[in-house]
Specification:
By secondary structure, this protein is α/β, with parallel strands linked by helices. Helix content is 30%, strand content 25%. The structure holds zinc ion.
Length: 280
């Protein structure tokens, strides 16, 4: 079973030191949209989509304030669709999309895979389909799900996974894929765990934004710290889940490779490890 690590879109705002924690203050930051493509016996599973073709065609739909603040760069060549085609597959091969959450930078590619089932933690779907006034700018359903996605809602009540609640989805596949709820950033935000050989990958979405947030002691560049606090729908839950992730990294870091959606260093590291495993 092969797993590919893609970046499906990027952000390049000024202020690299305050966003990435390295480089200069005036330099442009590097913020990726880390997505997974899992090859299974029954087609592809895509974990998060990043930005999609419609975002590349019409970046204005992402909203003026978001564009001004984060300088998103949705481009056709970096969409999941184009990168999956470059791997030799086609859109119809993507049978399942698993969303950490439905923010515009994680679900923009949904219209590129209209036949795929879209797996979401139930509270996130409810929040996205009936957004509060405050949440309306983060979910742009009119643009991203006017094709009527084939939603598959999942609730908790599943198994315990390294001390976290989890629910196994896609039981018919040879790939083991679990939702591991990590709410706080959004109402139904979830991590996605994928069995990878003897160990696990845990895609943490936006449960944290910088790799040093899950080290002990934690740290985070100022702008990312501010942005997370502003975006969080439940700050206490977000902080408590980060503490649980730190504990996971401390105690099971050898079994679980943890990464978030937007840290370019974690993407590079994951790609290097995947290349090493493929060559072995
Ligand atoms: Zn995000």
């Amino acid at each position: 079973m092969r797993i590919h690590h893609l970046s499906c879109g990027s952000f390049c705002p000024h202020g690299r030191r305050l966003i990435n924690g390295d480089g200069g203050l005036l330099e442009r930051a590097s913020v990726v949209c880390h997505c997974l493509v899992v090859e299974t016996d029954d087609g592809l599973v895509l974990v998060d989509t990043g930005f999609g073709m419609e975002d590349a065609r019409n970046p204005r739909q992402l909203g003026a304030a978001f564009r001004l603040l984060m300088d998103p760069r949705p481009e056709a060549a970096t969409t999941a669709l184009k990168q999956i085609e470059a791997l030799g597959f086609e859109a119809g091969d993507v049978k399942h999309i698993v969303a950490t959450h439905l923010d515009l930078d994680h679900a923009g590619g949904l219209p590129d895979f209209p036949e795929a089932e879209v797996h979401v933690f139930a509270p996130e779907l409810a929040a996205a389909l009936h957004p509060t006034l405050r949440a309306r700018t983060r979910y742009i359903g009119g643009a991203h799900w006017k094709h009527s996605p084939r939603w598959v809602e999942h609730d908790t009540g599943g198994d315990e996974w390294f001390g976290f609640e989890s629910v196994r989805i896609l039981p018919g596949l040879d790939a083991e894929v679990l939702l591991v709820p990590l709410v706080g950033h959004s109402r139904g935000h979830t991590g996605v765990a994928v069995k990878n050989g003897d160990g696990w990958l845990l895609h943490c979405g936006d449960a944290y934004f910088n790799r040093k947030e899950v080290t002990t002691p934690p740290s985070c560049p100022a702008v990312m710290r501010f942005f997370q606090a502003v975006m969080a729908i439940d700050g206490a839950a977000r902080r408590s889940n980060q503490e649980r992730l730190r504990e996971l990294v401390r105690t099971h870091g050898d079994e679980v490779t943890t990464f978030c959606a937007h840290d370019p260093h974690q993407l590079e590291l994951a790609r290097a490890r995947a290349a090493e495993a493929a060559a072995a």
